[in-house]
Amino acid sequence: MQYRDLNGYPCELSFEKNNFSYESRHVLVICRYNGKWVLTRHNERGLEFPGGKVETGESLQAAAKREVYEETGACVNSLEWFAEYMVYSTKPFCKTVFVGAVEKVNKIPLLETQGIILVEELEPGGEFSFLMKDAGMRTIIEKVKQLEKWDD
């Protein structure tokens, strides 16, 4: 699927592994806890799924779990690869999307975000980050909702 993000950059979404020539060095994690979607409030962008950059020597899965924990205090289990998307910005990058379930939430001091936000419905509007509002993210969200195993 091809689309433009809300910054105007061309993007491409794939639900097949290794579909892009760029190595993925970014992660996004869609997970649930007690039947609610796990989001975080980024200090500048607003509500969004947790995620970030992969550190040197770190696997995508390890980065996904670390980013969720650092941004929300949530401990993820049952992490599974779900999709990848390319953003063809001035510095193109590939991001891997994982889905998972949260087993527990710890209270930790947070620096990059305002912590965990649990929501029942994903209706990206006013207080949501621009990252949650483009056609690619809407497609990802709809496909995740179709996975009965993530609907706890």
Chart the SSEs and their pairings.
Layout: E1 2-4, E2 10-14, E3 26-33, E4 36-42, E5 46-48, E6 51-53, H1 60-72, E7 74-87, E8 93-105, E9 113-119, H2 135-145
Protein name: Nucleoside triphosphatase YtkD
Family: Belongs to the Nudix hydrolase family.
Organism: Planococcus antarcticus DSM 14505
Question: In words, what does this structure look like?
Answer:
- Helices cover 16% and strands 41% of the residues.
- It has 152 residues and is α+β, with helices and mostly antiparallel strands.
- The chain has a single domain (2-121), classed as Alpha-Beta Complex (Nucleoside Triphosphate Pyrophosphohydrolase), CATH 3.90.79.
- A hairpin with a 5-residue loop joins strand 7 (74-87) and strand 8 (93-105).
- The radius of gyration is 14 Å and the shape is globular.
- The two termini are 28 Å apart.
- 31% of the residues are buried.
- Pfam families: NUDIX.
- Belongs to the Nudix hydrolase family.
